[in-house]
TrEMBL record:
Comp. bias intervals (Gly residues): 148-158
InterPro entries assigned to the protein according to its UniProt record, in alphabetical order: AMIN_dom, Cu_amine_oxidase-like_N, Mao_N_sf, MurNAc-LAA_cat, N-acetylmuramoyl_amidase_3
Domain of life: Bacteria
CDD domains named in the record: MurNAc-LAA
SMART domains: Ami_3
Signal peptide per UniProt: 1-25
Keywords: Hydrolase, Signal
Compositional bias (Low complexity): 159-168
Protein name: N-acetylmuramoyl-L-alanine amidase family protein
Chain residue ranges for the region called Disordered: 142-176
Domain MurNAc-LAA residues, every copy: 366-473
Amino acid sequence: MKKIGFTVFMFLACILFVFPQIGQAASATSIYLDGKALDLPKNGEIQNINGNVMIPIRVVVEELGFDVNWDKKTRTVTIEQSGTVIKLTVDSSTATVNGKAVKLAAAPKLVSDTTIVPLRFIGEQTGLKVSWDNTKKSAYLITPNSGSGNGTGSGENAGSGSEAGEPEQVPDPSVDLANVGGISFANNRLMIAVDKNVTPKVFTMTGPDRIVIDLPNTKFADTFSNGQMLDETKNGYLEVTEYPDVSKVRYALFSDNPSTVRVVLDMNNAKYYEVVNENDGIIIVNLDAVAPSEPAKPGGNGKKLVVIDAGHGGKDPGAISVTGNREKDFNLAVALKVEELLKQETDIDFVLTRSSDTYPTLQDRVKIANDLDADLFISIHANSGSASASGVETYYTRSESKALANIMHKYLVQSSGLSDRGVRTASLHVTRETDMPAVLLECGYLSNKSDNALLYTEAFQDSVAAGVVEGIKEYLGMN
Ligand SMILES: [Zn+2]
């Protein structure tokens, strides 16, 4: 199966805006994938419904080699793509991606026997480059590694609705748009010149690595194209050759309602960055910033962000103790006590991967931490083994987590009063796939009678929770 990143589908989205009337099929539309015309099903034209371009989903994703299943009873389309499961239901404006609800701009529709879905959603969920030719009524989709086509689009800045002069899409004049006057990259910094205060939304995407900067309520200044490339579809790019982390800077009018300029840094590798926005006319994304997760860094004025992960939950009870206690309940109880203690810490922000008896997948837990650029990830578990095994262990996977593991373990031993079974390495999903120092604490053995009896006492849980917070503070240089 071709591996398509999250970006491909995004570009398709913009295409949709240029179509004509609501609910009216555009005539003789075509979709080209890597230069090859796809056979559109009968009545499977691209359509514009309430301003959203809708494309027949099956023909595109099947051609990409994704698994597509249609459940007639629930009217649900399930698309599977290298570990990502996307579910779309006809007439429901909520889709799910790996079980998480995602709002759609428009509900998928069943037209004859063909399900059509918003192009924007497709664009957001894949890595295709997309462009739209309004004259030829054709969408061009390019897979990132196809080697075909070049410059027909620029990844997730999938087309804009502005180029075709769609009257319904004229921005609300009451919104005072800021002008983006120029975009440059120097000294390992992206610099974006704006003529009004703008609050950028910055996030990362992977496969390939990108840093995405959305600038709400902005447009390109009329003079922008004098200084740098901007084609008629309001797309352009800068090649970056002197800096090893970045290969290209792309930019586009990503949306015209609300008008949003998107700038994308195509990265050669994931990299920590800092956004500097002092409302002085220049927004900076600094790739030379020192990651706050490096404990050597003095102070820092920003708060640290800690992710607390109560292991298992919901359908997954974890280990079952000798007396029938469920590991998930212990893990959650400690996590909630850690939460209460962290609320007292003014310099630490925190996020729990779960705060009730639910089951986020391991991928969800990692994604929460990575998306938030958290500084630390602490997973709380209890162990199970032979009846005689007793004590605590701390696990990590990547070497950058070792210092955290050593400190957390010291406090775990102290606060639990149980025997020290050592700091260990193991290739565990949550400690391996996270981007920040991450540890998994095994706070005793549920298979051991005396450990088990202790673990479900309030006093033990209070003490371990306090130890976790002390460890976090020591690692972050706060105590
Ligand atoms: Zn566990």
